[in-house]
Amino acid sequence: MTMTVESDIQFLIQLAQKDLQMKENKRLLETTPLTIKKLEKEVSDMDERYTEAETEMEKLKREKIRLDGDVKDDRAAIVTKNNELLKVKDNKEYAAKTSEIQFLEKKIDGHENRILELLDLIEAEKKEVDAATDKINTEKDAKLAAKKDWEDKIEEAKATLARLEGEKARTLPLLSERIRKRYERILNVKRDSGVANLIGNVCQGCFSRVPAQHAHEIRRNDTILSCEACGRILIYFPADQKPDS
Ligand SMILES: [Zn+2]
User: Fold this and answer.
1) b or e along 159-186 (b: 16 or more beta carbons within 10 Å of the residue's beta carbon)?
2) What is the DSSP letter of 228?
3) From ligand 1's centre to the CA of 126, what distance in Å?
4) Which of 160, 157, 164 is closest to 28 using CA atoms?
5) How far apart are the CA of 6 and the centre of ligand 1, in A?
6) I need a labelling partner for 112 at 20 to 30 A (CA). Which of 29, 75, 129, 152 fits?
7) How far is the CA of 58 from the centre of ligand 1 (A)?
8) How many helices (H) and strands (E) would you count in the chain?
9) Domain-by-domain residue ranges, the chain?
10) Which residues, including other chains, have CB under 8 Å from residue 224's CB and lie 6 or more apart?
11) Is the dihedral of CA 228, 229, 234, 238 positive or negative?
């Protein structure tokens, strides 16, 4: 085993670990915006449900106030017309006044039925408002906190990616030129990494099985071989090994 192969393998392991971390962070950056959008939607649905119920309740209340006023006016008008009825001179005028009074009484009946209906509707809408308020009080803060958490995670992931990029840029020149070029060429094609860890006899880049003899040589860490299926340089390190930072 030459010094170059040995140090190349060590640097490739460092690169593989950084690439894995980068992959995780990139995945977080890809999936988190959707999670945040979902939380935002849940919060805005909550607010909307409250606003809708509140608006509907106010509308019903306004209608009731208007009808109450109408009933009051119509009752006053009936009193006036009843007084006028006493001064009426002929039958025709009497019949006309009586019919006006009957019309108003019918109108009042209709309004009063609607007012009863409105009382029920307002009560039901009030329950909607209360339920919506309850949901906001118990859930909104937690959702907003979760959203903030994810936003923080995005910032962390971005910072981690920048740090790892820097570390990789410093590690790459330490590789022998031949291996560095191979790594960079595969990275350009595969995007995630130019190097893959071997777990069992399986390439973790493409999950193809590696011939047992190759796997054995790779685990000995004294030769540099590529995966025949995906081209990534194969290395071996325990999967739960913490990356050096
Ligand atoms: Zn592979």
Assistant:
1) eebeebeebeeebbeebeeebbebbeeb
2) T
3) 63
4) 157
5) 21
6) 129
7) 66
8) 5, 4
9) 27-172, 176-245
10) 5, 8, 9, 12, 179, 233, 235
11) negative
- pLDDT at residue 222, as a whole number: 83
Q: How far is the CA of 202 from the centre of ligand 1 (A)?
A: 8
User: Rounded to whole angstroms, how far apart are CA atoms 235 and 224?
Assistant: 7
Please indicate, yes or no, whether the overall pTM of this predicted structure exceeds 0.90.
Answer: no
Inter-residue contact 233 to 194 (CB < 8 Å): yes
Report how far ligand 1's centroid is from the alpha carbon of 228 (Å): 7
Give the residue from 201, 196, 200 showing the smallest Cα distance to 231. 196
Q: Tell me what pLDDT residue 243 has.
A: 56
DSSP states along 68-123:
HHHHHHHHHHHHHHHHHHHH--SHHHHHHHHHHHHHHHHHHHHHHHHHHHHHHHHH
pLDDT for the residue 245:
43
- What is the Å distance from ligand 1's center to 32 Cα? 28
Successive 10-residue mean pLDDT values, the chain, 245 residues: 84 95 96 98 97 98 98 98 92 94 98 98 98 97 98 98 97 95 95 94 96 93 92 90 54
What is the spatial distance between Cα 219 and Cα 193, in angstroms, rounded to a whole number? Answer: 19
What is the fold, at CATH topology level, of the domain defined by 27-172? Helix Hairpins (1.10.287)
Sheet with strand 233-235: strands edge to edge: 202-203, 195-199, 233-235, 225-226
The C-alpha angle 206, 164, 13, rounded to 5 degrees, equals 50
